[in-house]
Design goal:
The structure is a single chain. The chain is an all-beta fold. The chain contains 1 helix and 29 strands. Strand 2 and strand 3 form a beta hairpin. It is elongated and about 140 Å long.
């Protein structure tokens, strides 16, 4: 009698002796069970009694989705086929061959049963199809594995040694296994998991789900993060030293870490965002006297570094020159010539210019001191022709005063030119 085939995850049974007295020979050995990553070994064939020599050959191993084959029986007998490997993610080994007497045309022992496949196929999700009995034994298997998703975890950079995570699986009832930084094997973990006493530096958590049938996610979900406990150090690279006359001095600085945020302040003001990415200057003029500039940095993990400071003093400089003044007075008309003399009162030495336009010519005068100069206003082009025919021309003129020291100032004035028209 042949041995019974193994159940999922079990080896096949050894074949019975035909006479039950073990005087003729042993039945074939059962095939080994399939493992989680390989097929089971084939069982050995039966042997001749009484010398116990194992003349039968072993069966073949099962492979991915395929059962193994049975080994041949003893060499002086016919070949009794062992059963094929059982179903499963990996097939079990084939059973050993039995013993058959050609003369008596009778089996003395049956072949060993095939080993069961690994027990990784779910009852409902997997399907198994067997080849026709005259074909070479084969098994076709399909199955499902759960997907894994990390719902939440720490920021990319943290300044504490504890990291908390939550996971979910695509199949209800699944459990989880975790591995941190590829250290050792995966170990069971809960859907809400925390890690304490983490070392400073980069970390990667791997998580895989395992469904109720033992199938696990072959592509674990990953979460990368960094534990950073070191605050950034700021260095002030440039700024005024000692006494300065400028009331808004500029400072430049850098950090020992990249991707930081700087905050600046002068004296005891609250820290604020710096005016530049790596520089700062006062928002308003600083008073005369001693001052302190301070800057600090905050990194991505939230570590706030110590303040870097720089002392300096603002001293009184030369007073700023008074702004230039320009005043345009009432013009004096000369109707015989059709022009006007425009008085321009200036506050100091410099150059006074009646600016050229489409209607008037440019006129320049120099002032050696605070005085009043007279600028000639004369029409040009079409404006002059209109003045000669109509006897009156309204226009707007602009005068610019450029002092020797200070910024120029410009004023405008409306006036009317008049000219006597000859009647024919």
């Amino acid at each position: 009698m042949g041995g019974v085939g193994g159940q999922a995850g079990q080896a096949g049974a050894r074949g019975d002796n035909a006479t039950n007295n073990n005087t003729v020979g042993s039945g074939g050995f059962g095939g080994g069970r399939g493992g989680s990553d390989s097929g089971g070994a084939g069982g050995a064939g039966g042997f001749v009694y009484p010398n116990g020599a194992n003349d039968g050959s072993p069966g073949g191993e099962g492979s991915l989705g395929v059962g193994g084959y049975g080994g041949d029986g003893a060499s002086n007998t016919g070949t009794g086929m062992g059963a094929g490997g059982g179903g499963g993610y990996y097939g079990g080994g084939g059973g050993g061959g039995g013993m058959f007497d050609f003369f008596e045309q009778e089996y003395f022992s049956g072949g060993g049963g095939g080993g069961g496949g690994s027990s990784l196929v779910p009852d409902e999700a997997g399907t198994i199809s067997l080849a026709a009995i005259e074909d070479e034994p084969s098994v076709e298997i399909s199955y499902t594995v759960p997907g894994t998703t990390i719902l939440s975890g720490p920021d990319s950079a943290i300044n504490v040694r504890r990291a908390e995570f939550s996971f979910t699986a695509s199949e209800p009832g699944s459990t989880f296994e975790c591995r941190l930084d590829e250290a050792g094997d995966f170990a069971p973990c809960e859907g809400q998991t925390a890690f304490d006493d983490l070392s400073e530096g980069d970390h990667i958590l791997e998580v895989r789900a395992i469904n109720e049938m033992g199938n696990f996610d072959g592509s674990p979900a990953e979460w990368a993060f960094k534990v950073d406990l070191s605050p950034p150090i700021v260095t002030i690279a440039a700024g005024p030293s000692g006494k300065v006359t400028g009331h808004r001095p500029e400072f430049a600085f850098s950090s020992s870490e990249a991707d930081v945020t700087f905050q600046c302040r002068f004296d005891e003001e609250p820290f604020r965002a710096c005016s530049g990415s790596t520089s700062d200057r006062p928002i308003v003029d600083l008073s005369v006297g001693a001052h302190t500039f301070s800057v600090r940095a905050t990194d991505r993990a939230g570590n706030v570094g110590p303040e870097a400071t720089h002392d300096f003093e603002v001293e009184a400089g030369k007073p700023n020159p008074r702004p230039a003044r320009l005043q345009l007075k009432r013009p004096k008309l000369k109707r015989a010539k059709g022009i006007a003399l425009l008085p321009a009162k200036v506050s100091g030495p410099g150059k006074v210019v009646l600016l050229k336009s489409k209607m008037v010519r440019a006129t320049k005068r120099k002032a050696g001191k605070a005085t009043t100069v007279r600028l000639k206003v004369a029409a040009r082009g079409k404006a002059l022709k209109k003045l000669r025919t109509k006897g009156k021309l309204k226009l707007k003129v602009r005068v610019r005063f450029t002092p020797k020291n200070g910024a120029p100032v410009t004023k405008s004035k409306r006036l009317t030119l008049r000219k006597k028209v000859r009647r024919r």
